[in-house]
Design brief:
This protein is mainly alpha-helical and about 475 residues long. The chain is built from 18 helices and 6 strands. The protein has a two-stranded antiparallel ribbon. The protein has a two-stranded parallel sheet with strand order 3-4. Strands 5-6 form a two-stranded antiparallel sheet. The structure holds arginine.
């Protein structure tokens, strides 16, 4: 083994060193150094197992473990000498170990290859990242639930096609995102369960003739079991694809919420205001308050989806087993997690502090004939009209109000009776936005009582009380 520039660990059969450009395209250290601690953990488990099985002497294992302790200390203190010419984190750790403990370091790679080593590290890293992202999503859910609890009775327009549809409550609207994020969270945690099998010991691709104990290393690293097929173990990346697809879906939800923030904070809507901490100004237009973080979340959601697609493209035509194409899996995955985590933290901050404007929301809910469905339902319930006929009568009344430049509740009883003679004064009770929202008490509906129940349930589920 060598450590100098230009001399590689695999250089035995090579007379010349790689060209600089070859080194540049081949090196992954700048990316995979983030798996340094996972790499040390994998090596510790491997060496312990080799010693246990009599493949490595106990003295050599002791030296290796002590050396890995020193490496870990250097990593944590930031003094580990990373060397790009050593290609990747695996060879950096091993080379440093050799510098620290000498000869026994060369025995660590017995019955192991970088192919099973890298993907073991990568699974460990991704398992932790999934856990962290799921926790951040839980934090965002908590803020949404808290804000929903403050607004169980706040009326706002509900939209379809972004046209005023029916009055809803703000709490209900916010809880819709809590539900989405709950599915996102379970996608992330489910994925971690499937990921949790250990590739270590698959060696280069075919397994090894050394009498290793794969259950032992799997257990030491917290995996549920060793992977059953060595070819699959070194080449499968569906765990990363699944993680990225789960992130991509979750980021899509963040993006939808971001879009609502952009709309709601525009002067045209005026439903909400971001605090100074979460707004930016314009260099030319002094009046501007821009929702940049929300816009960036919207854009970054696509970046995460792009990373999923890029990895899927890298994997889809790869024959078994390992190929270097797989080296870029880490860059894509790390970036996707970093981006997702940042977006989730930014969204959590915005939701925690955004100032809602209930008056503007209520006023908007009252425009656009949002209680037309309530009128139609009243005709069905009170007059026994078939819904289609009630829909038609209501449509005529909406057209009449539109012509008069008024709202449905401003029509006179006489006007109404001109369209359908059975209509009585009682109809006016269902034409307010409050009555409309209050009436929607079906399970999952927008009525404040239902929303308050959901808020209570979520507070319990998220441990907020
Ligand atoms: N840096 C490599 C990667 O990330 C490690 C595995 C290298 N294996 C090999 N056969 N060249 O994929």
């Amino acid at each position: 083994m060598t450590t100098g520039k230009g001399q590689t660990m695999w250089g035995g059969r090579f007379a010349a060193t790689p060209s600089e450009i070859m080194e540049e395209i081949n090196a992954s250290l700048d990316i995979d150094r983030r798996m340094a601690e996972e790499d040390v953990a994998g090596s510790r488990a491997h060496a312990d197992m080799l010693a246990e099985m009599g493949i490595l002497s106990f003295e050599d294992n002791e030296a290796i473990q002590a050396g890995l302790d020193a490496v870990m200390t250097e990593l944590r203190e930031g003094s580990f000498p990373f060397r790009r010419e050593l290609e990747d984190i695996h060879m950096n750790v091993e080379a440093r170990l050799k510098e620290i403990i000498g000869e026994p370091a060369g025995r660590l790679h017995t019955a192991r290859s970088r192919n099973d080593q890298v993907v073991t590290d990568f699974r460990l890293w991704t398992r932790k990242a999934l856990d962290n992202s799921a926790r951040l999503v839980g934090g965002l859910q908590a803020e949404l639930v808290i804000r929903a609890g403050e607004h169980t009775g706040t009326i706002m327009p509900g939209f379809t096609h972004l046209q005023t549809a029916q009055p809803v409550t703000l709490g209900h609207h916010l809880l819709a995102y809590v539900e989405m994020l709950s599915r996102d969270r379970t996608r992330l945690t489910d994925c971690a369960l499937r990921l949790n099998e250990c590739p270590l010991g698959a060696a280069a691709l075919a397994g090894t003739g050394f009498p290793i104990d794969r259950d032992m290393t799997a257990e030491a690293l917290g995996f549920s079991r060793p992977m059953a097929n060595s070819l699959d173990a070194v080449s499968a990346r569906d765990f990363a694809l699944e993680a990225l697809s789960a992130l991509s879906i979750a980021a899509t939800h963040l993006s939808r919420l971001a879009e609502e923030i952009v709309l709601w904070t525009s002067p045209q809507f005026g439903f909400a205001k971001l605090t100074d901490q979460w707004s930016t100004g314009s260099s030319i237009m002094p009046q501007k308050r821009n929702p940049d973080a929300a816009e960036l979340i919207r854009a970054k959601a696509s970046l995460i989806t792009g990373h999923f697609l890029a990895l899927q493209g890298a994997v889809k035509a790869l024959p078994l087993a390992y190929a270097k194409d797989l080296q870029d899996d880490k860059r894509l995955t790390f970036e996707a997690f970093d981006t997702f985590d940042l977006c989730t933290r930014a969204m959590t901050g915005m939701i925690a502090t955004i100032e809602f404007r209930p008056d503007a929301m209520r006023a908007a809910a009252a425009r656009g004939f949002s209680t037309a469905t309530d009128l139609a339902d009243w005709l069905v319930r009170e007059l026994g009209l078939p819904f289609r006929e009630a829909h038609h009568v209501t449509g005529t009344l909406v057209a009449m109000a539109e012509k008069q430049g008024s709202d449905l509740s401003d029509l006179s009883l006489a006007d109404m009776q001109g369209v359908h003679k059975g209509i009585t004064q009682a109809v006016f009770d269902v034409l307010t936005v409050e009555a409309s929202a209050l009436s929607r008490t079906s399970y999952g509906g927008t009525s404040p009582v239902r929303v308050a129940e959901q808020v209570a349930q979520w507070k319990q589920r998220l441990g907020l009380e």
